[in-house]
Design goal:
9 strands; Herpes Virus-1; 2 domains; alpha+beta; about 15% strand; Znf_RING; about 180 residues; single chain; three-stranded antiparallel sheet
């Protein structure tokens, strides 16, 4: 029923108290202020191979190594004496890598900003269109565009930079796309 949290020596919490506060969900972690929590205080960039010192401060492994080479062998923030460079904090490293992948994916999400065109095929979360087909009168994200590059029957289709309102760019009389320049 009770357990000890090691980072607060001799402080006991009940399991019910822990579960009431609940662990952070990944969406909560994703919304953290990366500048505040995931930035090395030496190089002021997102951690690369983060190491956590005995005093609990985290730095990039190279940053801490160079700091210890050229300064005294103490934590740059609190001056606690360090006997060695800690091993890479693999949990923090993996979280940072996952957040980087997530932010890269978010770059392709359609936001409605000027110049953006949504993929007409995506269901749910829409992605930005990479090309528009003047024959299909449809705009495609990179995932849905693959079919146009691989299917023989679609070889003759004219792909152009993404265009908004493709339906309005078709000739109603002939059922063909208007010429875009």
């Amino acid at each position: 029923k009770y357990f000890m949290i090691t980072f607060h020596p001799f402080t006991y919490f009940s399991f019910d108290d822990y579960m009431a506060s609940g662990p952070a969900s990944f969406s909560e972690i994703r919304s953290l202020d990366k500048d505040q929590y995931l930035t090395c205080s030496i190089c002021m960039d997102i951690f690369v191979d983060p190491v956590t010192t005995v005093c609990g401060h985290t730095f990039c492994k190279k940053c801490l190594h160079f700091n210890l080479m050229y300064n005294d062998r103490s934590c740059p923030l609190c001056k606690t004496i360090l006997t060695r460079i800690p091993d890479v904090n693999i949990v923090l490293r993996d979280i940072i890598q996952q957040l980087k992948k997530t932010s890269e994916k978010n770059d392709d999400v359609y936001t409605g900003k000027d110049g953006e065109v949504a993929c007409d095929i995506c269901t749910g979360e829409k992605l930005k269109a990479k090309k528009s087909c003047l024959v299909c009168l449809t705009s495609y994200c990179s995932t849905h565009l693959e079919n146009h590059y691989s299917a023989k029957r679609l070889e003759g289709h004219k792909l152009v930079a993404p265009v908004k309102n493709l339906d309005e760019r078709a000739c109603l009389e002939h059922g063909r796309p208007l010429e875009l320049t």
